[in-house]
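in:
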């Protein structure tokens, strides 16, 4: 995060207005796939008060500073072999094949 959460502003592109208030700026330092098991020792208090592993948190869950710092250390030290970005071409091709081979099903799914 590049700054504080601006609670008085709304992100204009949510499908459900007013569900997640507040915006903040981020700067992507790197993108890396790290499995949940690498965070099994990072324990936080959930929004409902339960204490669980951070991998059980949901979108917009605030992560305390110390636990976030621990997660960043895991990101930095984990040696991965690839990232999701390397798979986009495969998924794009798979989608094109699906649309080409199932045009009616695809059109119905798009309308719903």
């Amino acid at each position: 995060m590049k700054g504080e959460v601006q609670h008085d502003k709304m992100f204009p592109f949510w499908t459900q207005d007013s569900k997640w208030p507040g915006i903040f700026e981020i700067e992507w330092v790197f993108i890396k796939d790290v499995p949940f098991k690498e965070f099994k020792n990072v324990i936080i208090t959930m929004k409902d008060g339960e204490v669980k592993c951070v991998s059980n948190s949901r979108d917009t869950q605030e992560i305390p500073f110390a636990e976030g710092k621990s997660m960043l250390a895991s990101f930095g030290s984990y040696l991965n072999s690839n990232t999701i970005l390397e798979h986009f071409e495969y998924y794009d091709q798979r989608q094109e094949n699906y649309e080409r081979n199932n045009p009616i099903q695809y059109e119905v799914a798009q309308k719903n």
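note: The chain is about 30% helix and 5% strand.
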